Structures are given as structure tokens and as C-alpha cells.
Amino acid sequence: MKKNKIQAIRGMKDYLPIDIAFYQRIEQILKQVISSYGFSEIRIPVVEKTSLFERAIGSITDVVEKEMYTFQDRNGDSITLRPEGTAGCARAGIEHGILYHQEQRLWYMGPMFRYERPQKGRYRQFYQIGVEAFGLSGPEIDAELILMTARCWKALGISNHIRLELNSIGSLETRKQYHKILVSLLKNNIHILDKDCKDRIYSNPLRILDSKNPAIQELLINLPPLREYLDSESNHHFLGLCNQLDIAGIPYHINQRLVRGLDYYNRTVFEWTTNSLGAQGTICSGGRYDNLVTELGGHSTPAIGFAIGLERLALLVQHCNLKLQPNRIVDVYLITKGPEKQHLGMLLSEQLRNLLPELKLMNNFCVGKLKKHFARAIKLGARFAIVINTDEIGDEELILKDFLHQTQKKILKTEVYSILASLLDLKLQSPIEDQLH
Ligand code: ATP
Ligand code: MG
Questions:
Q1: CDD domains, from UniProt (predicted)?
Q2: Which domains does the chain carry?
Q3: Residue 125 contacts residue 14 (beta carbons within 8 Å)
């Protein structure tokens, strides 16, 4: 009897090779930009103690209350699949003593897990690339991170489809004061509030500011903006940041309602959003979190970071920059006609790999008509096919088929290395170096 197929878990998708080639291109560009600012990679575990996220993100937040994948391990300890990367980075920094009295500029990439309703741009396992800068308190680093993201969008060709929203949520003290005003307005209009907002009045009223409910948004028009209550240092910081962005020519939109969903933020918060993807329009979000390291038991360390949702970014790039090509999986497809001559193909491929280490070459091992082999090469996205056609030409001669220009010519085996190096712009390793390695 045929057995049932086992399918992937809802909201967790497979990234097939064809998708990965596109993701790799995007990731390569992002990593290149991030590295150009002197940031280094950190890799942290995918699971952490549940208490880390409860303490860092805050117990009364959507992420911790509703979205975490929390389990007991075999020891009975409560562990959680990470819903974001900042808490883990701060934990690792404290644990290894690399934050105290020093700067750390870090980036990470990997899967995050949130139990949310799956839809386009919202998954239960999704990927983020994130950046965290520890040890700098001035607005310059805030501006630099924003410049870094703007440079990423430019390199990906999506600058015209994405805009920067910026706000300052001040200090904890600022927000406490503001809570009072907000709560009194909400209490006087309790009949307008939906269940979610009612639940939040006493637990986390600030989150009501970014409620999507139109009646609540209308009510909030009467509310004085949070920025009017900023403490003078936060205000100064914010003006400093705006000034730097003005000088750098980065347009921004001050969104008084932007508060962000996680408790650890203070002062600067920002989001890059798009209208091109429908509801899931936030591509990148971040902010300052000067109290998180202390909250997690470390020495006081100012910090700021952001995270980019890679699936949403890929959707946006696909939507508006058709020129960005996926990374090529195969440059050259090598075809040896006749099974008895396969060893010649294998030998030539190994020599090509020795002398052109960057070359992506796939060997064809099956018999069949040349036309079929070419079709396969094209499907793989190969730029060239090389044919060792033992029926027609001697071992010293090869056929080079160029799929881009749709040409075909005979070349000598001795020339093939330099021809490919020049056509594919690859570094040719000298045979002497080759022997040494
Ligand atoms: P949203 O308001 O869309 O739920 P968020 O505020 O929860 O986003 P962050 O915690 O700031 O998101 O995460 C940073 C980025 O990660 C987001 O801007 C988004 O691009 C991406 N992201 C967050 N949750 C998901 C998800 N469930 N699926 C895919 N991408 C996500
Ligand atoms: Mg969310």
C-alpha cells in the first residue's frame, strides 16, 4: 500500500535551488555592503533559553505572548526557537565579555521562528540578516546604519520603491509620562477600543499607537505626539540624527506613530517600508536599545541594530528590479560524446578546475543527442557548453558553444583555459602555483 506523504509544517517553506540562486545573489550584495562598513559576522544558536526572550523582548509583547515556538527539552528546561537575533547577540556579547569598554560591530544571518498566520511575506520560519552595533551612544552610528541600509537598496535597485520612516520613542521615563496621557484618552473612549487594545491598556499601551483599526487611528488624532514629551537628551539625539541624514541626502518621513513591537527599544526607531507588496510592507526595521545589555545582566552598553526580512526583500526585488539575475549555478556544461571517452571529459574538467578555481563546471554523464544536452545546459542557466566530440574531431580540438551569443566554434584544448578566463572574467591560476598547492 502506498504510504501517506509527509509534508512540511504549515508556514515553513522549502527554498529550492532555483530560489536559492536568487537569494544568494541578494545575500551576496547585502554582505558586501555590510562588510564595507567594517562589520563582522557572528553566528549564534537557533535555540536559546525562553527566559532570554522574555526578558529581552518583554513578556507583554505580541512576539512573546503569541508568537514564540517554546518547548521543554528532555531535561524539562524551557527553550525557544529564536524569534529574532538581537537578544542572542547581546547574550553572546555579554557571555564572552566582548562588549565591555569596547565597540562591537556585528552582523548575523539565519532563520527566525514565529507562530503567526502564514500569508504572503509572513511565514513561521523566515530569514533575517541583521546588524548590531554595540558601544556607541551618539547619533552618528544611527545615521551610519541607515546609510548602510540605503546603500543596500541602491545596490539592489529598489531605492525608488522603499521609504524610511523614523521616530524617537525617548527614554523609559518619557514613555511612562506619555502612558498616563495615552491611557486617560483611551479610558475615556473605551467603547471604541477593540479587544486587543483593551488588553493592552494596562500592559503595553504604546503598542495601541500602531493599531491598524481605523476607529482607533481616528481617536489617536487627538493625541499630542510622543515627540513633544521627549527628554532633552533624546530630543538632542534625534535632531542630531535628522541633521546627519539631511547632510547625507537621505529622505525620511517622521512617523509619530512608529513605536516598534519589542520592549527593548529606546530613542531612535526606524522602518523601511514599501507599498509594492500589499500588507506585509515592512522590509527592514530597527532601533536603539541602550538598556538591553544591562537588562540581560551585562555592563551598561549603548547599542543599535536593525534586521531585514529576506523573503520580503526578495519579493520586492523580484517585483521591481527585473535586471537582478540569480547567481549562476553553472558557467560551463561539459559534454563528452561517447561513453568510452568519458575519462577525457573528467580529465579536462579537473584541469579546468585546477586552473580556473572560480569556474562552475558541470559534467554531463549521460548519453544522448547533442541537442538534448544543449537543452539541459540552457535549463541549468549555463553560459557555455564545451563538447568533446570524439566522432568528428581529434582529442585536441573542442567545440565551444556560446548560449548568450548563439555562436559555436572549434577551439584547441590548449586554448580553452585562457578563452574561458577571458570570456567569464575569471582569474587564471598559473600552472606553477597549481603544482605547489
Ligand atoms: P510585522 O509588523 O510585519 O509583523 P515585525 O515588527 O514583527 O514585523 P521585526 O520583529 O522588526 O518585525 O522583524 C524585522 C523584519 O523581519 C521585519 O521588518 C520583516 O521584514 C521580517 N519579518 C518579521 N516577521 C516575519 C514573518 N513572520 N515572516 C517573514 N518576515 C518577517
Ligand atoms: Mg510581527
A1: HisRS-like_core
A2: 17-170+230-319 (3.30.930.10), 332-436 (3.40.50.800)
A3: no
